[in-house]
Amino acid sequence: xxxxxxxxxxxxxxxxxxxxxxxxxxxxxxxxxxxxxxxxxxxxxxxxxxxxxxxxxxxxxxxxxxxxxxxxxxxxxxxxxxxxxxxxxxxxxxxxxxxxxxxxxxxxxxxxxxxxxxxxxxxxxxxxxxxxxxxxxxxxxxxxxxxxxxxxxxxxxxxxxxxxxxxxxxxxxxxxxxxxxxxxxxxxxxxxxxxxxxxxxxxxxxxxxxxxxxxxxxxxxxxxxxxxxxxxxxxxxxxxxxxxxxxxxxxxxxxxxxxxxxxxxxxxxxxxxxxxxxxxxxxxxxxxxxxxxxxxxxxxxxxxxxxxxxxxxxxxxxxxxxxxxxxxxxxxxxxxxxxxxxxxxxxxxxxxxxxxxxxxxxxxxxxxxxxxxxxxxxxxxxxxxxxxxxxxxxxxxxxxxxxxxxxxxxxxxxxxxxxxxxxxxxxxxxxxxxxxxxxxxxxxxxxxxxxxxxxxxxxxxxxxxxxxxxxxxxxxxxxxxxxxxxxxxxxxxxxxxxxxxxxxxxxxxxxxxxxxxxxxxxxxxxxxxxxxxxxxxxxxxxxxxxxxxxxxxxxxxxxxxxxxxxxxxxxxxxxxxxxxxxxxxxxxxxxxxxxxxxxxxxxxxxxxxxxxxxxxxxxxxxxxxxxxxxxxxxxxxxxxxxxxxxxxxxxxxxxxxxxxxxxxxxxxxxxxxxxxxxxxxxxxxxxxxxxxxxxxxxxxxxxxxxxxxxxxxxxxxxxxxxxxxxxxxxxxxxxxxxxxxxxxxxxxxxxxxxxxxxxxxxxxxxxxxxxxxxxxxxxxxxxxxxxxxxxxxxxxxxxxxxxxxxxxxxxxxxxxxxxxxxxxxxxxxxxxxxxxxxxxxxxxxxxxx
Length: 849
Hints:
By secondary structure, this protein is an alpha/beta fold.
């Protein structure tokens, strides 16, 4: 009987499918058996061995390698004897293969670990010695993200991974070596020079560290120190001051010069784009994140989109999809894409794919992380392009094994773990979940995208929780929506990269087209991160990760039953949307926040200040912006504030102004009022830059001014206008406001110190200072408060904006005792969270919570 006749109607290919098969190949994926897991135990064993032995003694690693090698060889000999004829028996996981892989991993880890102990660098680092070193740069220099620490932002620096090839100690003795170090360059983008000094012994001025290419040899002076983290892959940290100069003693390799020229061309092509697209597109294409702002980086981190800023397998998958075919049609036809349509045979297609892989690795740097991305991306693409997901599990295990043997430090990398877990989820869980969704009527494309996003999130979320102590509730929808823009942004971005050396105008046109989807991804990240319920705090560490893994498994089991009922699915989806968006009427009914008649709200922004004064429906005057754009933006969203007549920045310390971008984003802002004392200068420049980007005027506030906004009336009490006494630092120049609203009086002191507090009482405005209903205590409740000002103000409610477990001892016990002794109710954000003052003056005054 004809074999085709035995197939059901569902299995008989249609005419269009037969025509497609005749043109492009077999129209149906091959039928495959059960999962082939034989290589998984050896790969996992090698992974674990490398993670344990790479930081230990090389002698111990050598002992493990020798013992396992002898044991594996013995099992091979015994197996051949049993098989007869010298043919080994392979049934199930082979103990011999496992032991040999462990031996190889231990040997490789021992050799790599020995690099950290070889030569004089570790000993010099333990003595914090000042040295002159010749370095070979092994990675792209990267700027640090400025972090707010107290009242200032940490100064920028540049991090460079390098190998010390020659070192001269403080005693003048020189030695050749090859020891990995982390170079920390203070002062940001300065110091390295591309020219050589006349005698190669004195630094020359100018240059930029960020322009230094991998494989460049530099000579630099600095101070060695022990590694920042125990078990790190560097033997020491070489700290180079901002005033130091490094000079080039060896040019980079040809391949690195080509890659550097291509990356520089992409940066030039994207220079004219919108700020978000200009920052994101180079990161999306080649992992260049030098332009990414801390605010944008935090938004991507909150939404679990951070993998888009790094070189990942997704980039490579999209590129090869152009050549081989899109994932959505891969199950029907094995060969799709450009190659068969332009008549390229299979072997030529393979060669082009290999060339594309090589070019990807060269441009994105041949580092272990890039090799990992290329390997996992190729495996993921082959899985969807051939429909043979199950047979590619051995390929993934082989890739893991080879990469761990090549670089044992990957075994301790969270990025490597997340990459492997995500790829494994795409090979195993995603097909089943997408099939289940299709069986319940979900369109095929949507089902596959949902299955892939959910599977990757399910297996990666516990690891992310270990690191971040937070679980994102918007990760799956954000990643799903981002997928529509990732492919065009990546393809057009790589096209701009390739076109830049030939024609910058063409490259700029392509970059402009790529800027639209890149901007969409950035807007998506910011919107998702700013949602009130974008994530929940979760216990950190491995216990928290294990707890989340258990919860995820229970959720998956329950979800299988929930999917059977469309009504239950709809209700669950609606509940999730409500939890994430937290509509004000619903949240007010459940939690009481925000109170319907709130007059003042103190946002919980950590160690910093951010207050909002109600000025009508959807309108509020913001006093200070806190240290974190996401936190203040989230607070304003929860209050429903969309219009801001004025932003008052009491002074320019980072814990009061660093969150300004979060206030300005998506809101109509009238003006920004600031103090006239413009210190520190870097924060002043930041405020003016953010204001200029949004076209918001910046004006100076001075004592005696009165302003109104809706029911609000406020008067500036401090600082005095010119000529003004020179303040003792930015705190004493804080804009101080006396606010009246709904019969209440509020005194907002900024970070005013006792000398300025006493001077305020001697001014005409201060002399008439009445008792107030609410006092925003100065300087986060520090011990430096003027008793006379507290006595004159006599607040009924004292509000203190302060961060949990801050290192400054805020609020001071003496300040708390002084306020309570005068009968003030004290509320503090570190214990009470966000605080709202509601009602009016007199007995109508209430505080929430």
